[in-house]
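Supplementary Methods S3. Input chains for the assembly prediction are listed below.
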Amino acid sequence: MAKTFKLEIITPEKVVYSDSVQSISADGTEGSFGVLADHAPLITELKTSILTVNDANNKTIRLALDRGFLEVMANNVVVLSDACVTEGDVNVEKVSAEKDAAEKTLSSGGSAEEKEKAQAILTRANTWLKLANK
Amino acid sequence: MLSTREIKQRIRSITSIKQITRAMEMVAASRLKKVESRVLASRTYTEKMHSVLSHLVSSLESTHPWFAEKDQAIPVIKVVLITADKGLCGAYNNNIIQKVVKFIKEKTGKEIKLTLIGKKGYLYFSKGRYASLIEKYIPESVEKLGYSHVLALADQLIKGYEANEFGELHIFFTKFHTVMQSFPTSMRLLPIEKGTFGSEEKKPGGEYIFEPSPVQIISHLFPKFVETRLYQCVLESLTSEYAARRVAMIAATENAGEMIDELTSSYNKARQAAITKELLEVVSGAEALVR
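Predicted structure tokens for the full assembly:
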């Protein structure tokens, strides 16, 4: 069996995931990358994206992140994110409603700040839906 | 001595008070349970973020502007105070308010600006001689403050700090320890105290790879850190509030029970006295007839 390392995914609301895994692949702001056991120490920023985890039993788990930071240190990986959902947890109706509202804000115009917020919500909603639909 | 009727009335009213306090205790207990799990989860997050930041700062040579002391240049201190919206929770509100008052008295010569979360703090400060210090009051009830509200507030505070509107940011909240114990606490959020991250030893494993550059990461992580700390403080306070209310209501229920016992015994005494008196009257009346 491949060597494993510890992965923790934490949001302000709860610890979403904490277990030994074989590998993860994530989307950083500088491009996507993968982490295997014995990875060099790394701190990086993550985009709003889907994180794929290969756990100790070689099962693939997919999670959607709303931005975040990832730290690799001595076979401990910590992901800190604003929000994180697993595949089964996406509330499609609610997310679609959020998406519609954000799109409306974007098309109707408003202050730059409002638009920026709406854009962030839209990206998040899209990622959530992508996770749910596959 | 009160008449039996009056005593009965008092017993009745205290019984209903007891029912209310018992209900409030149960409500506080169930809310406490809910919010307690949130505060513990958020603590893990804050701690992890703290450790990530420690690693980051220890590998950084340059110092970030957020570490720089600028209270000399800008003698304005921003104070965020978190209280409850309601009373009936023992000394919870008073303790933290007194701490702020003491702080204000200590910092003579500096301008203090208050941002208030929670109605009780607002009621206290808006009436006293410190009314002019209030800059902002957040009317949403504390329990309804979600992460997004706190985020918006933190955003404003960070922008204000970067625009040199104030030199220091302090937060006053009540740290939750156990149900019986919580501590009114003050913390300086900005500038970040130098010792905050320095103490942690470097872990083995060599230098970090940063993507993007450390400066960029830190400029994103620091605001996040302030946000999460603020959120953590709100949650801690809320938990302490429920705990304090629960304890206060347990005490109130107990006291009501004791009072009912006392009143019942004096009711019985009064009743007995009335019966004895009546008997005496009947007997002495009968005796008078016999003669």
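Helices of chain B lie at 4-58, 92-106, 119-127, 147-162, 195-198, 214-290. The longest strand of chain B covers residues 168-176.
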